[in-house]
Amino acid sequence: MSRIIAGTAGGLALANVPGSATRPTTDRVKEALFSRLEAYGVLHDAVVLDLYAGSGALGVECASRGAARVELVEQADKAASVCRRNADQVNTVLRRRVVQVHRTGVEGFLSKLPGGGHYNLVLMDPPYPLTDDKLAHVLGLLVPVLAEGAVVVVERSSRSPQPQWPAGLECFSDRKYGETQLWFAEPAEVSPQNS
C-alpha cells in the first residue's frame, strides 16, 4: 500500500491500481524526487500536470506539499477510477478541490490545451511500451504549455535511452535509482535559424 509521504495529507493511505498494468513509483524514488523538487522551489503554489498518472500518487503528493492545482491525466479505466478515489481523499483532507482527474489520452489532452504557459511542473511516468518516438512527440506537445522556469520530470526504466528532447526543452539533470531513471528538463530558448 502506498502513502503520501509529507505535507498536509502526509501519512494518508492511497488506493493502488489492481493488476500489473501500472508500476508505482517506489517510496525511495518518490522521496528522492520530491527532495529535488523542493530544492528547486517548484512545488509551492505550482500548477502541476501528472501525465500517465496511474494511481495519481505523484500528483496527490504534490497537492499535499502545497501545489495550487494538480491535473491527473490517465486513459485506462481502472487507473482513472483509482485516481478519482485518491484525488477525492486528498481534496477532502485539504478542504478544497486541488486535484482534478481527466480520463483521456495524453496526446489528445495536450493537443486541446491553449498555449500560454500553464504548468510549473510536469510529471511523466509513461508505460514501458510507449515508443521513444511517441514520447518525443508528447514532449514536443508540452513545450507551449510550460510556464517560465517550469520543470519536466520523465521517469523511465534505467535501461531506456534518454528521451529525445524537442526544441524548446532541454535536460539539465538525471538520476538513476536502481531500475528507475529520472530525467529533469526545463524550457529552453529556441535560437532562430540563420538565414
Automatic annotation (TrEMBL):
**InterPro entries documented for this protein:** RNA_MeTrfase_RsmD, SAM-dependent_MTases_sf
Q: Give the record's keywords alphabetically.
A: Methyltransferase, Transferase
According to the lineage, what is the superkingdom? Bacteria
Q: What's one GO MF term for it?
A: methyltransferase activity
The record's listing under CDD domains reads: AdoMet_MTases (cd02440)
Signal peptide positions (record): none
The Gene Ontology biological process annotation of the record reads: methylation
Entries under NCBIfam families matching the protein: 16S rRNA (guanine(966)-N(2))-methyltransferase RsmD
Name under which the protein is recorded: Methyltransferase
